[in-house]
Amino acid sequence: MLDAVTNLVRQGWRNTLSIYYANTPIWRLLKSGALAFLGVFLWAGGNLFLSYLPGARIIDYVIAYGVLVFFYGPFTHLVIIPLVIRWRKRRGGLRNKLAKRMSKINLTFFILLVLVVGTYAPGFMFLSFDVASGGPNINPELGCVDRGDVIECELTEAEGVGQVVVSSGERTLVTVEERPYGFEVRKDEMVEVVGQKSYVVEIRDEDGEMQRRFSRSAPP
Amino acid sequence: MIFDLFDNDYDEDGFRTCNVTGMSIHRSVENPVKVFGLTAVVALVVGGFFAIGVALTRWEFVGLLGPEEFYRWLSLHAWNLLIFWMVFLEIAILYVGGPMVLGRRLPIPKIAKVGWGTMVTGALVINYAIWTTEAPNQAPLLTSYAPLPSSPYFYAGAIIFILGSVVAALPFFVSLWQEKSWGEGGSLPLVTFGAFVTSIIAVEALLGGLAVMVYAFLWRIEILESIDAAVYRQVFWIIGHGTQQINLVAMVTVWYFLTHIVGGAEVVSEKVSRTAFVLYIFFINLGAAHHLLSDPVVSVSWRIWNASYAFYGATLASLIHAFAIPAGIEAGRRRRGKGGGLFGWLTNAPWKNPVFSATIFSIILFGFVGGITGVVMGQVQLNMTWVRTLATVGHFHGTVALGTTIAFMGLVYFVIRTMFMREFRFGRLASLQPYLYAATMTAATLMLMYIGLLYGVPRRIHSVVRDIPGTDFSLSAAEPLMMIFGVFALLAIISGAAFVVVALASVLFGEKKVPGSDLVPDGGVDFESDEPVHKFDMRGTFVITLIFLGAFIVVYIANWYLLSQLWSIGP
User: Fold this and answer.
1) Which residues of B touch A170 (CB under 8 A)?
2) What's this model's pTM, rounded to 2 decimal places?
């Protein structure tokens, strides 16, 4: 049993090494693509978790790893590994000696970089979650009453409202620009669709920007 | 020149032998496949054009269209890409999987022509109806949810298109009936079996679609006084999601077909693969229930049964295919002497051949992006954090744009080489195009999911990032991610346009040439070993499957954890 586990671990380690040093164009591309994908996944996932768990420092390191591996992973497999393999093929010399230790140096440098960037956590790694910086709250209520041939409407809670535009189909029926923004619409001016006469009330602010849109049907 | 496209070297009986697949192909099958394929590409062009307006509007930095135009463009984008591009090509797949693989003539060819004509008419009417939508009618998007009224022409067009699809599928059913009546007996080939399962799910979806569109049409022209919106929603999703299930099963069939032909894959266990297809018949359409998980009308037990029990029958089927297809590639390539190491069978594959690369990208990206998120968001509880947000849009771009569309692009490349018998124009671009499209569309899709999950940015709204009108609630923090989305969405559209350029230039101006050894599996048609395929090593696939399982578990647990953080339970 122990032997089987040892063999499995040994074989796994050999496979990992052979993939790490695989240097054909398609292998370089696959490894770089996979590491870039992993980088985005960890950066995005880390920020997502941070939005729920603000202050969890461990996540800073996950995000730092994600950001760095996105750039450093492809750099390692497109530049460093091909260079290491080329230098290893030389006999003797400084480059050959360096190449034999290059992967350990490279990995150590990368881990140190993750620790430093994770510790100092520069702002560009993080997404903002500030969601309360919009405009004023305009929240009018529209009340309408059926008076036979016409519909009578009035607006309450009209703070911030600048204009009320009533339309039916493609036609504008009424435009009101004065408080208290009451209006009447005739039923025979409304467009009928699937047996129902309908009209749309658009509430705009003082700059003419649409803030609310009510779609109503008139009783027959 | 146009008629030259439909003229290959057939014998006196109208048959020819394909030197790539070895199939005996009759003119009456091959020409409709080309016509349906070309029509699908035209729909792709139209839908892709409208994608420009949709992407540049949701990317609020540009904010191209106003609300009214946005919904019009979004509706045209949805119908042309989700329905017309897919369904025209799926009819072609039925003809390939049926009479072509079986070596038969196309039965009742006039019916096929009538079906094509009816489908084209329906598609044109729908495009016209959406383009000319005026208030009080609403642009329908995909769903045309009642009681919001759309143009009566829209419902009429949908009915015509659905009827045309059923008619166009009839020759496929007749060819199966002929095979079982007069054939040599035995099981249908796996690809034919897959196409048959596709057609069963298609008929179910199309009949559901016919029911709901006739109901809505009668209401819209005021023969019916009112419409039950809840009934509409429930019946609509029989076709609404059903069409996407047709895409899925057709795509899986294409995976088996193309990985075998250009990648040298073998089916390791036909019984297992066929069982997975049968699971689709029983369970996959129940997955449509996940569209109604936040619908107040259906009961909790209905939701849980469909989306949290029955749906896993379909998930199991997809997981089986997700193992069986790469395992088939690995074992098949090792059998041809193209193995070596853990992943040598994969890395020495014909990656420059766009038919192969498109198929593999489709398998990987559908699994990792579209598949995992589909199972996660298809659950009653987790659905709450996904539904109504851009994350949902990300999910279905993962399935349809990354999975089905890339697979179908590979299929079109294959048809260009083996049926139109044209060399690719812009050969280098043809080799690169699946890479470009896969990379850029993946980035855009991930951003959609991420923006939806992280910020809750809603879908089906033309502008929200700056602010939601009339409230102090702002989503402006999502703007940096929207910038990334916008750039990659545009690049994805350009990559899609590159496909159209290569495909049309090759068909119209490519050198006519009988396809050679570049499409036959490298390692040859003959095997290096007489050992049965299941005796070969599949450990590379096993490792890939473990990585997939790991990603699945991480995403699953993360989603549950985040959901649990939304509120506290207990004192």
Assistant:
1) 134-135
2) 0.90
Report CB contact under 8 Å: A134, B220.
no
Contact at CB, A194 and B467, closer than 8 angstroms: no
Q: Does B476 touch chain A (CB under 8 A)?
A: yes
Contacts with B469 from chain A: Cβ below 8 Å:
138, 209-212
Q: Which amino acid is at B430?
A: A
CA distances from B348 to A14, A110, A160, B342, B495 (A): 20, 30, 67, 12, 25
| Alpha-carbon separation of residue B119 from B84, B242, B411, B450 (angstroms) | 9, 18, 21, 37
Residues of B with CB below 8 A from A142's CB? Answer: none
Q: In this complex, do B135 and A167 lie within 8 Å of one another by their Cβ atoms?
A: yes
A2 pLDDT band (50/70/90 cuts)?
confident
Q: What is the mean pLDDT of residues A155-172?
A: 88
Rounded Cα distance between B539 and B202, Å, is 36
Closest CA–CA distance from residue B91 to any residue of chain A (Å): 34
The answer to whether the Cβ–Cβ distance between B473 and A134 falls below 8 Å is yes
The two structure tokens encoding residue B455: 């910020």
SS3 for A6-44 is: HHHHHHHHHHHHHHHHCCCHHHHHHHHHHHHHHHHHHHH
Map out the domains of chain B with their CATH numbers: 21-240 (1.20.210.10), 278-461+494-522+532-571 (1.20.210.10)
- Positive or negative torsion for Cα B330, B333, B336, B342: negative
Is A141-218 a domain of CATH 3.30.1510.10? no
SS3 assignment, position B291: helix
Tell me how far apart the alpha carbons of residues B155 and A191 are, in angstroms, rounded to a whole number: 20
pLDDT tens, residue by residue, B349-406: 999 999 999 999 999 999 999 999 999 998 888 998 898 899 999 999 999 999 999 9
Of A45, A194, A195, Cβ closest to residue B558: A45
Tokens 């849109």 sit at which residue? A213
B136 contact A CB<8A: yes
**A209 neighbourhood in chain B, CB within 8 Å:** 469
Beta strands A171-176 and A161-168 are antiparallel
pLDDT of amino acid B501: 97
Residues of chain A contacting B468 with CB distance shorter than 8 Å: 134
- Write out pLDDT tens, residues A107-116: 999 999 999 9
Nearest CA in chain A to B147: A194
Please count the residue pairs, one from chain A and one from chain B, whose beta carbons lie less than 8 angstroms apart: 101
- Please report the pLDDT score of residue B466 as a whole number: 58
Which residues contact residue B94 at a Cβ distance below 8 angstroms, ignoring those fewer than 6 apart?
B169, B172, B195, B198, B199
Which part of chain A is CATH 2.60.40.10? Answer: 141-218
Question: What is the residue-averaged pLDDT of chain A?
Answer: 88
CA dihedral A90, A95, A97, A98 (to 10 degrees): -140
Residues in B touching A133 (Cβ below 8 Å)? 474, 476
